[in-house]
Design brief:
By secondary structure, this protein is mainly α. The protein has six helices and two strands, in the order βαβααααα. Strands 1-2 form a two-stranded antiparallel ribbon.
């Protein structure tokens, strides 16, 4: 495995620590990365979810440290606004969790911690979906749903038998 810098290839730009390139060895498979600049935004070889971790900012932005830092601040603030909107939507009508995960997705375009959190969430959701498809769990869930609907129908039938189609706040106890 050979690691070359962008300058060795003749690329222009400042030395931001993100200019190393992995060149595959005899096997043709890259095994590591030397391009982590210490802020967690490297594009390392950890590709658990199929994509490398790190910043997905355009290359011209990553080359300039001040521009990249400004980009990260902007991404963080936009993601924060979306997550706060999702948290506000949780008790209100609206897709609160969807909006929160959308904000996390915005953060994941730039920050490794958000990418790892989304990978963990995807893994847990996949495990829950697999568990829900288990025939025993599915049978239990269907049984509990039928019991719950039967109880609700029984209470509704009792109410209609006792009071008719009168709203509860208009019942006069004579």
């Amino acid at each position: 495995m050979t690691v070359r810098s962008d300058k060795a290839r003749g690329d222009a730009g400042g030395n931001t620590g993100t200019g190393d390139v992995i060149v595959p060895d005899d096997t043709g498979v890259p095994t590591g990365s030397g391009n982590d600049d210490g802020d967690g935004g490297g594009t390392g070889a950890d590709t658990d979810g199929g994509r490398p971790l790190g910043s997905r900012a355009p290359h011209f932005i990553r080359r300039s440290r001040p521009l990249h830092l400004s980009w990260q601040v902007a991404v963080f603030l936009i993601g924060l606004a979306v997550v706060v909107l999702g948290v506000i939507m949780l008790p209100l009508p609206g897709p609160g969790w969807v909006v929160i995960f959308l904000g996390m997705g915005i953060w994941a375009t730039e920050f490794v911690w958000a990418q790892l959190a989304l990978r963990w969430t995807r893994r847990k959701v996949a495990e829950a979906a697999q568990k829900a498809l288990d025939p025993r769990v599915r049978r239990r869930n269907i049984t509990l749903t039928v019991i719950g609907l039967t109880v609700i129908a029984g209470i509704g039938g009792w109410y209609l038998w006792k009071y008719g189609l009168v709203m509860p706040w208009k019942i006069d106890e004579d």
